[in-house]
Amino acid sequence: MSAGPGLESLVDQTISVITNDGRNIVGVLKGFDQATNIILDESHERVYSTKEGVQQLVLGLYIIRGDNISIVGELDEDLDSNLDLSKLRAHPLKPVIH
């Protein structure tokens, strides 16, 4: 995976990262390097469950290794702020098997 110009446009924006082990981490992109290691600030992990609402675990300043990233996407903050995560139910994501 190469760090293309797409990540540059997301610096200081809120993004969502799906890792190879199925974690969903949301935070403000502060930086990245040529190996797509990324630095997130004000980050939290969203833990999904079919039995209870989404739990948000505070991580703060967080670094994710590029070889552990599956998907990086821009988060629509207006849409996200209107979601009631306590009522959302979903199966946790399964890890990516290479």
Description:
By secondary structure, the chain is mainly beta. It has two helices and five strands. The model has no long low-confidence stretch (mean pLDDT 89).
Describe how the helices and strands are arranged.
Elements: H1 5-8, E1 14-19, E2 24-32, E3 38-47, E4 55-64, E5 69-74, H2 77-81
Antiparallel strand pairs: 1-2, 1-5, 2-3, 3-4
Index terms:
single chain, 98 residues, mainly beta, 2 helices
Number of helices: 2
Tally of separate domains = 1
Assess the beta-strand content as a share of residues.
35-45%
Distance between the termini: 14 Å
Q: Find the count of extended strands (DSSP E, 2+ residues).
A: 5
Query: Which class do the helix and strand fractions yield?
Result: mainly beta
- List the uncertain runs: none
Order of helices and strands: HEEEEEH
In short:
The chain is mostly beta strands.
